[in-house]
Amino acid sequence: MKALEIKNLVKKIDNIKILNNISFSVNKGEILTIIGPSGSGKSTLLRCINQLEKIDGGTIKINSDVLVDTNNNGDVMYAEKNLRTQIGLKVGLVFQHFNLFPHFSVLRNITESQVKVLRRSRDEANNIAIQLLEKMDLKSKIDAYPCELSGGQKQRVAIARALAMDPEILFFDEPTSALDPKLKGDFINIIKELSDGKMTIVIVTHEMNIAKSISDRVIFMEEGMIIEEGTPEEVFEKLKNERTKFIF
Predict the structure, then answer these.
(1) Cβ distance 98 to 155 under 8 Å?
(2) Distance CA 174, CA 106 (A)
(3) Burial group, residue 218, by CB count within 10 angstroms (0-12, 13-18, 19+)
(4) If 136 and its partner were Cys, which of 57, 156, 165, 205 is the partner (CB 3.0–4.6 Å)?
(5) Which of 141, 160, 137 is nearest to 149 (CA)?
(6) How do beta strands 65-70 and 76-78 pair?
(7) How many degrees, rounded to 5, is the angle at CA 176 between CA 171 and CA 179?
(8) Residue-wise pLDDT tens for the chain (248 aa)?
């Protein structure tokens, strides 16, 4: 079953197509990695899927629910507010710079959205947060503040915060850009563990080794278009496009 379906997605800024008729899908439980040079539209794509940017054309479906569609006249039509909210709760995004609340403790960073958005009791939210912090080997940091954490620890808190909302798809935007080589290995292990739990994962990265080592499928983007798609072997070893042959 498809967890995510994108068809003919267009995003314009100042009448320039940042995303140019992007189409792809992601199966449930799959790890998809999106790679490409800076400015290729990778992060913009994630922002459109996560409702942080409005699209200018195309269709986005999440678990068969239509978030946005475009009619024959070219009119973009988003789902009504309640459905958009429900769809939004099915996806989680771990930002490149983690976006933790600096004035909240680690525990409160993970519980706040549970209480405010999911309407969980504070006790239930705390229990879920503690379980996730144990899983991330961060229970000792429960009362720490983001300024007291390393980059890798901040990332794990951000992942725990996203997981606490029970998403069906988890998105990562350049997750290893601020991490040293050892911590990049830790990130790979976390993704493999999440995948073993059948989580659907979409990663935007410029790290080719990440894409090669953990992906079920890889998409290569350039200038707002998909120019290569397939398994890691197909994309990195059996390239069809002359541009990607040159890059790799």
Answers:
(1) yes
(2) 22
(3) buried
(4) 156
(5) 141
(6) antiparallel
(7) 145
(8) 899 999 999 999 998 999 999 999 999 999 999 998 888 999 999 999 999 999 999 999 999 899 999 999 999 999 999 999 999 999 999 988 889 999 999 999 999 999 999 999 999 999 999 999 999 999 999 999 999 999 889 999 999 999 999 999 999 998 887 677 777 788 888 888 888 878 999 999 988 888 888 999 999 999 999 999 999 988 887 665 555 544 54
Q: Where are the alpha helices (DSSP H) in the chain?
A: 42-49, 81-88, 106-116, 122-135, 151-163, 181-196, 208-214, 232-237, 242-247
CB burial string 140-171: b at 16+ within 10 A, e below? ebbeebbeebeebbbbbbbbbbbbbbebbbbb
Buried-state track 28-64, b at ≥16 Cβ within 10 A, e below 16: eebbbbbbbeeebbbbbbbbbbbbebebbbbbbbbbe
pTM of the entire structure? 0.90
- Alpha-carbon distance of 32 to 214, in angstroms, equals 9
CB of 138 within 8 A of CB of 157?
A: yes
Length of the chain: 248
**Token digits of residue 60:** 């986005």
Whether the CA torsion 183, 52, 67, 90 is positive or negative: it is positive
CA dist list (Å): 174 to 36, 178, 191, 246: 11, 9, 14, 23
DSSP label of 52: S
